[in-house]
Design brief:
Blueprint: H1 3-7, H2 27-48, H3 65-133, H4 144-154, H5 170-190, H6 194-207, H7 215-227, H8 245-263, H9 266-273, H10 275-298, H11 303-331, H12 337-363, H13 371-394, H14 398-404
Helix pairs in contact: 2-3, 2-11, 2-12, 2-13, 3-4, 3-5, 3-8, 3-10, 3-11, 3-12, 7-8, 7-11, 9-11, 10-11, 12-13
Length: 425
């Protein structure tokens, strides 16, 4: 043995670099946010098959379709705003105020402006086709295909820009108000020192402290009081570029809850523990809330029925949100490629879906089939079109870069692993 090699073993081996710890991604909450957007396709298609009350209705209506609409409407947008608040707070904390504002402008502001300018004429054309087709009897036009072709020839391709509105993109408009308020209020409250710390103690007590058991009751009561000012049971829908301050205030509550939930993430663990209880309570209450809306219509809009309906709706809404957060995070603790793909596609699906919810059902107007079958077929066709357009036109293109901040691999289900996007996207 060489004695010199023992006495001089060579240069020291450098220590291994520390492992990179990626921020936690909340796959369950990602799924909830996406599911609430995709559920918009179901909601707006179901409206077409209501007996009356929508901008276009199919002659083969579904008698119980209003109950499904009211059930979904009870919790969908409030749940979405909770998710928006949660991920907004995450983004601000991880990227800072400047990047937060730029990120929200790119992901919310640009799609709102460009999307509304493109989608408004498309929606107008879909309605023009549907209304024209309603008067094109197949017997007079050589059959169903002939009536469709005749409708395209006779329809009005104009758009009344005096009626230009945010349409289904109103939630993006509201989000811009919420993010602007957060950009002002968060630094302001942080600068208050003792006042800010005192507020933090109170919030922590109601989030994870002894007072946490009273929090659901307080949220239900607050929502109930805000909902008493609505025109109909549930929460009204904005249809104007002029801000509806009452609606903004109403939806600011779930947005704020989501924002605070990010700063007190132990709440998610608590909701996971009791998620099946919340789900068991939420489901019957959602059904009761839907029937209470029906009762309000049947009793000629009596005030006391409206109050009961709003109380049931507020209760069902918050229990449903608690169940969604708890169950989703409990069941989706790791990434699943198919779920991840639907999450990635959900924004595009919601942005592009509304004209199709009029156009596709109108194609089947004269097919004498049960309304439920026509509705299921319409939703299936729309989802195929929306997913195909996302895959071919959005996912790996400049449009996808605007909507999600990156170009995703075109096919995510192969064996090759792709880097996971940042959790703030």
């Amino acid at each position: 043995m060489n004695t010199a090699s023992i006495n001089n073993p060579g240069p020291p081996i450098p220590p291994a670099p520390p492992a990179v710890v990626r921020p936690q991604r909340y796959h369950g909450l990602d799924f909830v946010r996406a599911a609430m957007m995709i559920m918009g396709v179901v909601l707006h298609t179901t409206l077409v098959y209501m007996p009356e009350g929508w901008i276009y209705t199919d002659p083969n209506s579904i008698d119980w379709s209003p109950l499904l609409v009211w059930l979904i409407h009870t919790f969908r947008m409030s749940a979405f705003f909770v998710m928006a608040g949660f991920f907004g707070a995450m983004l601000l904390q991880r990227r800072g105020l400047g990047d937060f504002l730029g990120h929200r402008f790119n992901r919310i502001g640009i799609p709102l402006v460009i999307g509304s300018l493109i989608l408004y004429p498309l929606l107008s054309w879909s309605l023009g086709f549907a209304w024209t087709h309603a008067f094109m009897q197949p017997a007079s036009n050589g059959g169903e295909i002939g009536s469709i072709l005749a409708s395209f020839q006779d329809m009005d391709f104009g758009a009344d820009w005096l009626e230009f509105s945010p349409m289904h993109l109103w939630f993006l408009y509201d989000l811009l108000w919420f993010y602007a308020a957060a950009a002002i209020l968060v630094p302001l409250l942080t600068s208050l020192g003792p006042v800010s710390r005192a507020m933090g103690v109170v919030v922590k007590a109601f989030a994870t402290g002894p007072a946490r058991f009273a929090t659901p009751v307080l949220l239900i009561v607050a929502s109930f009081l805000l909902m008493l000012g609505m025109d109909e049971p549930g929460v009204d829908t904005s249809d104007s570029w002029y801000p509806d301050w009452h609606l903004l205030l109403t939806y600011s509550l779930p947005f704020s809850v989501g924002w605070l939930m990010w700063h007190h993430r132990q709440v998610i663990n608590e909701l996971q523990r009791w998620c099946w209880l919340w789900l068991g309570l939420a489901l019957p209450l959602l059904v009761m809330a839907s029937f209470s809306v029906l009762a309000w219509h049947l009793t000629e809009e009596q005030d006391w029925v409206f109050v009961v309906a709003q109380l049931l709706s507020a209760t069902a809404c918050w229990l449903a949100i608690m169940a969604l957060v708890g169950c989703s995070e409990r069941l989706l603790q790791r990434e699943r490629p198919l779920v991840r793909y639907l999450v990635d596609a959900s924004y595009w699906i919601y942005l592009a879906h509304l004209p199709l919810t009029i156009f596709v059902p109108a194609l089947f107007r004269y097919w004498d089939a049960p309304g439920l079958l026509k509705m299921i077929l319409s939703i299936t066709i729309m989802m195929i079109v929306l997913l195909a357009s996302y895959h071919l036109l959005v996912r790996n293109t400049a449009i996808g870069l605007v909507l999600s901040g990156r170009r995703y691999p075109a096919w995510p289900f192969g064996r090759t692993s792709h880097p996971e996007p940042p959790p703030t996207e």
